[in-house]
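The records we work with from here on pair a chain with its fold. Here is one such record, which you should read through line by line:
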Amino acid sequence: MRKKVLKKKSDMSATTKNIVGILLSAVCGAIFSVILTFIFSYIFTNAEIISKSVNAIFVGCVLLGGFFCGIFSSRLTALKGIISGIISSLIYSLIITVIMFFFTDGRLSASTLFLYIGTVVVSAIGGICGANIKRRK
């Protein structure tokens, strides 16, 4: 009976470790996206650029952050890469939505929906890539 209790306790710590890894990867991906967006916005303030390309650059930064979010989550958790990538991308999308509300006055559009779908797909691909990267010993 005592062995079952210890086994259940170790399962609980693995679950907690997975949750913390997914949350940490989502926050790191969001920070990476924000930093990348600020870098590109600083570069393009001095250059003449068409306003339509600014939106494309923002989408690229968000998708790149989602990709790294998937890689981080698969490296930090014991889950399969695609599962950890999808779960972390949902949390990452929530964080990006909150950040976007500050800059878009609370408006959501169809392009935002496509951005979320793209983020889930790219983050799942990042999770697969992160799971297949060999760890150093």
Q: What stands out?
A: The first helix runs from residue 2 to 45. The mean pLDDT is 80. Helices lie at 2-45, 51-76, 81-104, 110-132. The two ends are 36 Å apart (CA to CA).
